[in-house]
Every structure is written in structure tokens, then in C-alpha cells.
Specification:
- This protein is an alpha/beta fold.
- It has one domain: Ribonuclease Z/Hydroxyacylglutathione hydrolase-like (Metallo-beta-lactamase, Chain A, 4-Layer Sandwich).
- The protein has seven helices and 13 strands.
- The protein is globular and about 45 Å long.
Length: 268
């Protein structure tokens, strides 16, 4: 089985002067392709809402259709219809824009996240774009955790011969925000969503040199409120179980570039 690492939206804001991505995963299974987060979609570029237009301009996004999951799936030799499942860490403006490009897919979300998009509250939940699900997606709503995953609560999403897919609830960024673990016991890749995006000094789970961390421009106290304060626990996970767990986050351009050097895919 292969996991393809995709940048589904370049972020190049003029201030702060940083570069980031919207980090998505495309997983090959015998049940079809599984897409974890979608990044921006084709409609976001061709017919954006007012909120989306503002966000794209603010983020300096080049609006490159080739970066959308829809076109990247085809560039890998598949058809868009091969995407059978989409798993969302959360449904913010930069994570769920590709949903209308795959209307036939099952869309897996945490129940609390589904309720949040119906009744958004507060500043962070203002970052939902209702047009992303106006087409009536095939929601698959997942309830409370019922498994232990290396000391974290977990919710089973899918099980295939190649890999299991689990929600790892990491609330705070949104009510239903989750990480997504992909793999089998002893060999996991954890997409942390926005719970570990390197937006402050110390948030990077991989202890990279401070000189490359252009993203960490936020005060730690503010970043913890925005991301849920999960970094210490996630860092401990990697320190104690780094032989069986790898981790990425939603805007981690550094890990993305490292995987690109490994042919842009990971076989597990």
C-alpha cells in the first residue's frame, strides 16, 4: 500500500513572510482511494465565495488548479471516481474545499464537527464555508471514542487489508477536530491536522533547527488556544513510540519536502 503526500494549497502570505501548504494524504487501498483532507477545490479557484476570495488573497495562494486533489489524483494515474472515501480532520476553509469535486465519496467526520458546521460558534468556527457542502455530501458521522491507540482515545473509521484508519480526537481548534492515524500496529502515520502546525517556537514535533522555522510567529499562549494545546502530548508520543509512529501536521512544509525527497510516497 502507498500513501501519497499532496500539497493541496500553497500558502504564501505577504505578512507574515512565511510559506506553508495544505497537507493532504492519498492512500491506496483495495476499497479504493482514501483522501485525508482535501485542501482547496476547483470551485474555490473558479467560482469562489466572498469569504474564500478574501482568504485566498490574504494567504497569497496562487490558485493553481494542478494543486487541487481532483487534478493530482489524475496526475497519479487514477480517475477522480477512484476516490471512495474522504476523511476530514476538520472542515475549515482550507481543509474541505475539495468536497464538491468528489460528490460520490463517503465523507467521514466526527459527530461534533458535523454539529459545529450546522451551528458554528466563535471566531475559529467562522472559518467554515457553507458552500463546501451545499451539494449534499454522503456524510458518515462517527461518534465517541471506543478504542485505545497508544494511550490516545480513538474511533475506528475504516479497516482494509492494507491499513486501518482511526480518528484521534484532538479538540480545541474546532469542537470536532481530530487527527487521523493510518496503518497497522507497529507502523502508523498520524496526520495531526492543525493540532501540531508549527506556528510557535516548540510546536514542531520533529525538533528542527529554529532557523528554518519561519512559521512560528505566534505567541505560544495564543497558539495553544488556537490549536488545543496538544503538542506536549504528541511530542511525548513520538519520543516514546517513534519506532512505530510517524507524524505530520496540516501545514508542515518541512515534513512534506522530506517525503518528496522519498519519491512523494510512503509504503507501509
Amino acid at each position: 500500500m502507498k500513501i501519497h503526500h499532496l500539497n493541496c494549497g500553497s500558502l504564501k502570505p505577504p505578512f507574515p513572510d512565511v510559506q506553508a501548504i495544505v497537507y493532504c494524504l492519498l492512500v491506496e487501498t483495495n476499497q479504493g482511494l482514501v483522501l485525508i483532507d482535501t485542501g482547496f477545490g476547483t470551485r474555490d479557484y473558479n467560482n469562489p465565495s466572498r469569504k474564500m476570495r478574501f482568504f485566498l488573497n490574504w494567504m497569497g495562494t496562487p490558485k493553481n488548479l494542478d494543486e487541487t486533489a481532483y487534478f493530482q489524483v489524475q496526475a497519479l494515474g487514477y480517475q477522480p471516481e477512484d476516490v471512495k472515501h474522504i476523511i476530514l480532520t476538520h472542515l475549515h476553509i482550507d481543509h474541505a474545499g475539495g468536497l464538491p469535486d468528489f460528490p460520490w465519496a463517503d465523507i467521514h467526520v466526527h459527530e461534533r464537527e458535523y454539529q459545529a458546521i450546522l451551528h458554528p460558534e466563535g471566531l475559529l468556527e467562522f472559518a467554515y464555508v457553507q458552500q463546501h457542502w451545499q451539494h449534499g455530501p454522503k456524510w458518515v458521522r462517527h461518534q465517541d471514542p471506543n478504542l485505545d491507540w497508544i494511550g490516545f482515545e480513538a474511533i475506528p473509521i475504516l479497516s482494509t487489508p492494507e491499513a486501518d484508519f482511526l480518528f484521534i480526537p484532538l479538540p480545541g481548534h474546532t469542537r470536532g477536530h481530530c487527527g487521523v492515524a493510518v496503518g497497522k500496529p507497529g507502523n502508523w502515520l498520524l496526520h495531526c491536522g492543525d493540532a501540531a502546525s508549527p506556528f510557535y517556537d516548540g510546536a514542531d514535533l520533529h525538533n528542527r533547527d529554529r532557523s528554518v522555522q519561519k512559521l512560528n510567529f505566534l505567541p505560544e499562549s495564543l497558539a495553544n488556544r488556537l490549536m488545543g494545546g496538544h503538542v506536549p502530548r504528541l511530542r511525548k508520543l513520538l519520543e516514546e513510540h517513534g519506532d512505530e509512529v510517524q507524524a505530520i501536521s496540516a501545514h508542515d512544509i518541512f515534513s512534506f519536502e522530506e517525503y518528496n525527497q522519498k519519491t512523494n510516497s510512503l509504503t507501509i
